[in-house]
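User: Hand in any protein.

Assistant:
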Amino acid sequence: MIIFAKYLLTKNEFCLLLVFVGIIVISIAILEYLSQKKVLHCELSRKLLHIIAISSAGFSIFYISDSSEIVKIGLGAVIILALAIKMEVINNIENQNRKSWGIVYVAISYFVLGILWKGENIWIIFPSLLILAFADSFAAIGGYFFAKEYLNIGNDKKSYLGSAIFFCVTFLMLIIFSQIKFESFSKWNFYFEFDYYFIFSAFFIAFILTLTEAISTGGFDNFTVPILASVLIYTFYDKKDFSLIINFAVAFILAFLVSWSSYKFKFLNRSGAVAAFLLAVIIFSLGGLKWTIPILVFFVFSSVLSKFRVNQNPEIETLFDKSGTRDRMQVFSNGGLAGILMLLFAIEKQNYIYLLYIAAIATVCADTWATETGTIKKQNTFNILNFKPIIQGQSGGISLVGTLGALLGSSIIALSGILWLNEDVVKYFFVISVIGLVGSLFDSFLGATFQVLYRCKICGKITERKNHCDIDTDYYKGINFMNNDAVNFLASVFGVGLMQILILITER
């Protein structure tokens, strides 16, 4: 940390970092003392800490001259706070008998915001962080003390009341920020202009952020909320465009129909339906048909194929980590990178991002189709590392039918996306199809090497599940956090990386 401060931070940046960390440390000490003396409830202490820490990060933009300072200060804060939590320096208030990385996610979001927003757009960081500071904290306090009914869409205990409070506070703050023109901390102008555009914009943004907060667990909303808020604020507030309002209204209707019908047909469980709705609203509204059709084709065809496979070969289901009814993590592991690329395009407006987007979807579609087609009927399956026979459905296995299914899946996505390309259609159809296939093989490689597997104590089968035959399984091999969702997401990153390399080679 000393080396980082000495060689990468200027004196001013180092002082700001010390002030930021100092505010957090002093606040922890005071609030910890007050909570121990029963002056403040522990939950109030935690949320006051969040308001103080996140607000100080937001106000810091008025004391810097360039976004690169935010990047370096954010990186320094990530390192310091991560070490503090690892060494349990930040303990009682923040973790409540468990390590909570929420405050580190705040620092990471600060770091990423510094990368995303530069020049005249740097002001966006301020409202994005303050929405998190106040809306999230008030929602948590209201839900903790007064809630009676809970959402049950994630691992964290979140309530309907808390979500309603989050929406109302976010909506009010967005209306206020739409009426303020910031130039510096000491120089800003407030004006009142009753404008339906900002009212509708605030409603849509608040609704999306409320869903994002509700479905994020483990403090991860400290990252997702400000990042998504910044992109949406930029999209709506950069220039008044009423077509955006219409797009979002249509997207809400379409996304609801897709997610609701998927839940009814048991393609998705409740958390998966909410995640799909959130992802669909973002892609439908910001991308239009060009960005919507490829991911819709993947979702519909893959869901139907998955249900067909379960009916044909239900025994294989016990080896997989999760059933054919997808949850929120499966939705995000397959479509999360596509959503990130959609948000990146909303900022950068670079055409090459669409190619990366298609490559990401082609990869996850190829992997899904490889699994579903390869396990419809009993057939020979081989380990991708040594081509020795293995049990059908085991991670790292490949088959001839599954490989052909992967190629077909990626080809369908290629066909659905290249219609909007002005490039060589035949060339990109071939390139995207191959990238999807190679990405699915990379998924199998990860499954054979790093994915965590367990052995059932009763039947002896190797499975992705922690519980099998109604009893906890024993660890067999792999990295503990590298489950199937992580493998799927990394495979999509691999596919995007391949496409990016090809783009760079082509441009030379």
Q: What stands out?
A: The first helix runs from residue 2 to 8. The chain has a mean pLDDT of 84. The CA atoms of residues 443 and 491 lie 5 Å apart.
